[in-house]
Write a structure and sequence with these properties.
With 369 residues, the protein is of the alpha/beta class. The chain has two domains: 6-134, NAD(P)-binding Rossmann-like Domain (Rossmann fold), CATH 3.40.50.720; 137-318 and 346-358, Dihydrodipicolinate Reductase, domain 2 (2-Layer Sandwich), CATH 3.30.360. The protein is built from eleven helices and 16 strands. The protein has helices spanning 16-27, 40-53, 66-70, 84-96, 111-123, 139-148, 169-174, 186-190, 192-202, 319-333, 339-358; strands at 6-11, 30-37, 61-64, 77-80, 100-103, 128-130, 156-166, 210-219, 228-237, 243-249, 251-262, 266-269, 280-286, 289-293, 296-300, 303-309. The strands form three sheets. The protein has an eight-stranded mixed β-sheet with strand order 8-9-10-7-11-12-13-16. A six-stranded parallel β-sheet has the order 3-2-1-4-5-6, sandwiched between helices. Helix 1 packs across helix 10, helix 4 runs parallel beside helix 5 and helix 9 (192-202) packs across helix 11 (339-358). The radius of gyration is 21 Å and the shape is globular.
């Protein structure tokens, strides 16, 4: 292997691969080698479209069949954005072929599936990581500094978060994210991975003692055996008294915010998952003061905005690019990091518990039950 570059193959021409074509190009330590689809024609069309948008100087091969790509000796790592319902099979096949695995999320239909993927990666000494991009933003270190200093917002008491977008009717009728065979958790899987994940990150990946979930609105299409969540709400309760709530929806206008309440103040992030377009990311810390002065009652606002220099949208400094760069560094240096597997497993365990609770009319459950 050329120690200066991580050679990438991609299983699927899923739309998000267009974004990550750009991320690999800008990573500085990655090279796109091949794109696999069920037909060579589809893979060629996809590559031509990406080359027209973000051209690379070297040829990128169109490969017919995922297994064909996995047999290639010029591929070190695979990016796997296949539907959740088939991710486990191909992630395990990739690991068994000696390829490092970067997988989209949710990583599997259940924690049992993710455990099988991780076991295969461990058995073959390859790196595992999921594609949660915000975890690689420079903003996360700044947020952690505020959360952990114990004075800026004090002790964390409450976490609330939402990730939603308003999908058109045609999308609801046709998109695979509402197929119970391919994406059984619907908005909980697609968007809840982010809201559950950021809550666990705030809590330093302490698992909650209790999880509740409820499907507020679901859909059962003609192509699906089961109802799939369109709108979902969940709760977590942690030992020590911290509570959390989250909301996901395909029928509510786009929002992606995080609110952490502490004993001394609170912080807000308005775009924690997908930073708004620009060259900065930020968050606000507030400590308002209620003043009672004789007959004068007033709430005095005190908010400080923390700003970090970081572009959005696949720039060299963007979180997407930093994800692929970080993964490539692990591959090139031969130093696997097991922390990423635990992050994915804990997120999946809570997601499973919430879905289980929802299917049992909101009964409290736990990630270990």
């Amino acid at each position: 292997m050329d120690k200066q570059v991580c050679r990438w193959g991609v299983l699927s021409t899923a739309n998000i691969t267009k974004k990550n074509w750009h991320s690999i190009v800008n990573s500085g330590n990655g090279r796109l080698v091949a794109i696999a689809s069920r037909s060579t024609k589809k893979a060629k069309t996809f590559i031509e479209g990406c080359q027209a948008s973000i051209p690379v100087a070297h040829p990128v091969d169109a490969v017919e069949g995922y297994e064909t790509l996995l047999r290639r000796t010029d591929v070190d790592a695979v990016y796997l954005p296949l539907p959740t319902g088939v991710r486990t099979e191909w992630a395990i096949r990739a690991a068994n072929a000696g390829k490092h695995v970067l997988i989209e999320k949710p990583c599997g239909v259940s924690a049992d599936e993710v455990e099988r993927i991780v076991a295969a990666c461990n058995a073959n000494a390859v790196q595992f990581m999921d594609g949660t991009m915000y975890l690689h933003s420079k903003r996360m270190a700044a947020l952690r500094g505020v959360l952990d200093d114990r004075t800026t917002i004090g002790a964390v008491r409450r976490v609330a978060t939402q990730f939603s977008f308003r999908a058109p009717e045609s999308w609801i009728d046709e998109n695979i994210r509402l197929s119970s065979a391919l994406e059984p958790a619907g908005c909980l899987g697609d968007l809840g991975w982010y809201t559950i994940g950021i809550t666990l990150w705030v809590m330093n990946y302490q698992l909650p003692s209790e999880v509740r979930g409820r499907v507020l609105r679901g859909i059962r299409r003609d192509d699906s055996e089961h109802t799939v969540p369109l709108e979902f709400q969940g709760e977590m309760h942690f030992d020590g008294g911290v509570s959390a709530t989250w909301y996901n929806s395909f029928v509510t206008q786009h929002q992606q915010w995080l609110h952490v309440s502490g004993s001394a103040g609170y912080l807000e992030v308005k775009d924690f998952a997908l930073p708004y377009f620009g060259n900065e990311v930020s968050f606000d810390v507030s400590k308002h003061d209620f003043v009672n002065d004789g007959c004068s009652f007033r709430m005095e606002r005190s908010t400080r905005t923390h700003t970090i220099s970081e572009h959005s949208n696949n720039h060299e400094s963007a979180q997407e690019t930093r994800l692929f760069r970080a993964f490539g560094d692990l591959v090139l240096h031969g130093k696997r990091d097991p922390r990423w597997a635990e992050v994915s497993l804990n997120t999946q365990r809570v997601l499973d518990a919430a879905f289980r609770s929802a299917n049992e009319n909101g009964r409290p459950t736990s990630p270990s039950s």
